[in-house]
Every structure is written in C-alpha cells, then in structure tokens.
Design a protein that fits this description.
alpha/beta; six-stranded mixed β-sheet; 18 strands; 20% strand; binds nicotinamide-adenine-dinucleotide
Length: 474
C-alpha cells in the first residue's frame, strides 16, 4: 500500500474506532493492495450521534453553508492530484477518467454553493401571510456504488449539506479509499460532524438504513438492493431517494449518418467500461442500417486500448470487481450459446486482473439475458427493427426506465418519438446529455424513486412546512 493511501485509511480508522479491516483489491491485478476500516455498530452509533449534534448548528445559517460548499469545491479541485491515483487503483478507470470524475464532484459542490433558492411566499399583504418553507430533514444516510464513487457522492453531499442536513456517507466496499480520501479533503473545510465517511461491507449499509437517527436515505446502487432499502426505510417512514439500475435503449432511425454517429454511440455504451447506470445497454437499429452500424461499432471496439488505468494511453481499464467480471462473462457466454455472434470481443483478456475485451454482439434479440438484464460491462447487443412502433415497444418492455436516446437526421422527428419512451431522460443524437448539475436525474419504473440534481434534487433533502397567519409587519 502506498504511504498516501495508508495515511488516508489510518486517519479515519482512528476517528471511528474501526472493528477490524477489509481488503481492497486493485482490479487491474486482482491482488489486494490496501485495507479499509470496517465500522461496527458502536462506531456507527457514535458517528450518527455526532452528525445529529452537528445538525443543530449547521441547519441555521445558509450563508455559512454556501461558503463551506464553495471552499469544498476549491479543496477538491486543489487536491485532485492526490485523489486521482487512489480512485484509479481501486476502481480501475484510467487516470484521465479519474481526473474527470473528480472535476465533476467539484462542479456539483460548486453548483449547489451558487444555486439561488428563492423564498416561496404565497401571500404577503394586508390580509394574510403564507409561506412555504423547505426545512432540512436532519441526518442523511448516503450510500454509493463503485462505478463513480466520488461523483455520485457529490450528488448527495452537495444538495444535502446545502439544504442544512448533515451526512454520513458509505461507499461501496469495492471502492472505499477514494471516498475516505474525499472525506479527509472535506474535513479541512467543513465543521466537525457535518460529513462523516464510514466504510464497511454491505451489512453496514443495511445497518445505516435501519438506524433510528437518519431521517433520509439517499441510495445509489442496484435495483435489488434499492428494493431492500425501501422496505427497511418504510419501518420508520424515512424519506428515500433511490437511484437504481438501468437498461438504456438507443433507437437509431434509418436517416442517420452511421459514420457520423458511431463514435458517440460507442462511447455512450463503453465509457467507464460500460459500468455506468445510464450507459447504452441495448441498441435498436433500423434494419436498413443495422449491418453498417454493427460494422462501424465493431471497428471502433477492436481499436480500443484496454489496460491498467495507470498505463499512459489506456482508454478502458478492467471491470471493477470479480463478481461483476463473472457476471459479464456469464451473460456473454449465455448469449453466444443462444446464437449470438461476437463481431468483436466475446471473451476475457488473457492476463491477470478483470479485463474483458470490448464486445459487440450481433444476432441477438429481446428475451435473452444480455438484452433483458443490466450487463453493466463492456458488451453491447445491437438488434434490428422494422418500424418505429416496434422499436418503441421493445425499448419500453423492460422494468427499467432510467434514460434512453433517439438518433436521427431529423431532430424534430426524434423529439416527437421521445415522449413515447418510459424513462427519466430521453436525449436526441447523444446519450446522457441530460446529466448536468441543473437537470433532474432519476429513473422511471424500477430504475428509481425521486430525483437527484438541480433544485429538485435539493428539495429531496427537505420537508415542506407551511407558515400561515395574520399579515406581518413590514
Ligand atoms: P449494490 O446495490 O450492490 O451496492 C450499492 C451500495 O449499497 C454499496 O455501497 C453497498 O455496500 C450497499 N448495500 C449493499 N446491500 C445493502 C443493503 N441491504 N442496504 C443498504 N445498502 C446496501 O450496487 P453496485 O453493484 O455497487 O452498483 C451497481 C449498480 O448501481 C448498477 O445496477 C447501476 O446501474 C446502479 N447505479 C445507478 C445509478 C443511478 O444514478 N441510477 C448510478 C450508478 C450506479
């Protein structure tokens, strides 16, 4: 373990009296390279009690909170170089992608520092005074997955803190270190207890949701875990926001210029090795352009440099963890056994670590697992359709509804079709253009409950209160 990482881990372990430690694996080697503290029940009680104490003063002064978030954004930008290698070592993504993710985390902190939130005075005249106030909820339990540990943490920390809550944040056990490091960076600019990072295996997440102190759970992860979170939170009616899995369709209309869209479409599916909730996970291409599109995507896939994220020029790293690597392998093997053709890829790379060749699958159809389930890896099935109604019906037929895209030479035609798609965002001629701090992000159906980002995400960390009474002195 490098000394920078050792410092990060031991500093947090001292704060919260960890109950032992667990291994952290570098997915590029498959070897353990560090350990992270395992927080037990007593330490969790202490962390939540500290967060509850901190809430009493943190909730009172919005000016202090905005200044602190500004300082937080500055600190993350200033210390990005320290965070980058930690993120790459445990997550696998290339160093440039790690830097980009950290830049996004800073941008989200800054957005919520600067967001103007107008007061909502409904009536203020000689007759009556009525105002709708958005009060912070208290302590927030924030739980994140391993694909974008820092960016997704900022989607929770920034609005929750801005609204006046305090936060206890738990990263995935596959990627605990970068979040611990982020906690260290932010500790220098936030008052004690306002943000705490706790690390541990999955049961720690369950213990946080069941704990009596937090009033809100903000969860990002799989649909299966999200349902458990919802059930557990229901016990004492904790508020929940759930950002869950996706199986995003891209519908390609016959009038596209295949050569012009192929790169964008490819990266919409393969960015972060396909480990993106809103990656394109299935393509429906009109039958007239299907073969040309398959060829174009396969040509790009075959040129991609897959390597350890620390190697200069690596475009994709390994899959993040062994279970996910096994799942991707299993879904591809299943598809190949059912008649799919791997135009390129189709197998792990022959080297240590969790490397998988970027894979384009042809001769695939709805009803097989790689199409119906979320693959969350570097594999893209490309199907063909005859008419738009068929494409829309197939796009909408899963339980997921995170985002979707429609690609056409005629944007207006695509916008018209977009309203027929059941998902939280539909983008035209790109996929994921709606991921911005100021736009709501959230899934329909089993892809989520509630939204993050923009004022809508902020309001999710508040409770409404109406103040109504006689006219107020001016
Ligand atoms: P996961 O559900 O296995 O784990 C997510 C987090 O939940 C981890 O921190 C884990 O330790 C914790 N956890 C596990 N069991 C828990 C329980 N019973 N109660 C509370 N917390 C528990 O998901 P993952 O494999 O880490 O992430 C991949 C999934 O996340 C994919 O399905 C992906 O689509 C989804 N995701 C969604 C979004 C979004 O914004 N919609 C963003 C990124 C990832």
């Amino acid at each position: 373990m490098s000394s920078a990482i050792a410092d990060i881990v031991s500093a947090d372990a001292l704060d919260f009296a960890a109950d032992g430690a667990f291994d952290v694996i570098n997915p590029a080697t498959g070897e353990v390279f560090a350990q992270a503290p395992q927080i037990g029940d007593k330490a969790l009680d202490l962390v939540f009690a500290t967060a509850q104490d901190a809430f009493q003063s943190w909730r009172r002064d919005e000016g202090v909170r905005r200044a602190a978030l500004r300082a937080a954004a500055d600190a993350v930008e200033k210390r990005a170089d320290e965070l980058v290698p930690v993120l790459t070592a445990e997550q696998g993504k290339p160093l440039n992608d790690a830097l980009e993710e950290i830049g996004a985390a800073a941008a989200w902190l800054r957005y919520y520092a600067e967001l103007e939130v107008p007061r909502e005075v409904i009536q203020d005249d000689a007759v009556a005074y009525q105002e709708v106030v958005r009060k912070p909820l208290g302590v927030v339990a924030a739980i994140t997955p391993w694909n974008f540990p820092l960016a997704l943490a900022s989607w929770k920390i920034a609005p929750a803190l801005r609204a006046g809550n305090t936060v206890v944040l738990k990263p995935s056990p596959f990627t605990p270190l970068a979040t611990l490091a982020l906690g260290q960076v932010l500790r220098d600019v936030l008052p004690d207890g306002v943000l705490s990072v706790v690390t541990g295996r999955d049961p720690l997440g369950a213990a946080m949701v069941a704990h009596p102190v937090p009033r809100k759970v903000s969860f990002t992860g799989s649909t299966a875990t999200g349902k458990k979170v919802a059930a557990s939170a229901a016990d004492d009616l904790k508020r929940v926001t759930l950002e869950l899995g996706g199986n995003d369709p891209a519908i390609i209309l016959p009038d596209v210029d295949v050569a012009a869209i192929a790169q964008d479409l490819f990266w919409s599916a393969f960015r972060n090795n396909g480990q993106v909730c809103l990656a394109v996970k299935r393509v429906y291409a009109h039958e007239s352009i299907h073969a040309e599109l398959v060829d174009a995507l396969a040509t790009i896939a075959a040129t991609i440099k897959v390597d350890d994220g620390v190697v200069a020029g690596a475009q994709l790293g390994p899959i993040n963890n062994r279970p996910q690597f096994a799942r991707v392998s299993e879904l591809v093997t299943d598809a190949l056994g059912r008649g799919a053709r791997a135009v390129t890829g189709g197998a792990p790379l022959d080297r240590p670590g969790y490397f998988y060749a970027p894979t384009i699958l042809d001769h695939v159809d709805d009803g097989i697992r790689i199409v119906d389930e979320e693959q969350f890896g570097p594999v893209l099935p490309v199907m063909s359709y005859r008419d738009e109604a068929d494409a829309l019906a197939r796009a909408n037929r899963t339980n997921y509804g995170l985002t979707a895209s429609i690609w056409s030479g005629d944007a207006e035609r695509a916008f018209a079709l977009a309203t027929e798609v059941d998902s939280g965002q539909v983008t035209i001629n790109s996929h994921g253009a709606g991921v911005r701090p100021n736009l709501p992000f959230g899934g329909h159906k089993w892809s989520g409950l509630g939204v993050e980002n923009g004022p809508w995400g902020l309001y999710g960390f508040t409770e409404l209160q109406v103040l109504a009474g006689p006219p107020r002195r001016k």
